[in-house]
Amino acid sequence: xxxxxxxxxxxxxxxxxxxxxxYLMLHRYGVPEKVCVGAAILSLLVVAIFWSCVLxxxxxxxxxx
Length: 65
Description:
With 65 residues, this protein is mainly alpha-helical. The protein has helices at 7-28, 33-57. 5% of the residues are buried.
C-alpha cells in the first residue's frame, strides 16, 4: 500500500532530522545534556513556527470577493 505524503510531512521529517543532528553534534563536543536537549527542542520549535508562518501567509482571503 502506497501512502501519499504531503509537503507538511516532509517538513516535519526534516525538522526531526535537524533536531537529532543538533543534539548529536552538541553531545559529541561535550556540551551538557540539558543544553543538548534544549537545542533539539528549540530547533523543532523554530521549524514549526517558520512553517506555520509560511502556511498562514499562503492562505487565500475569501472576503475580498
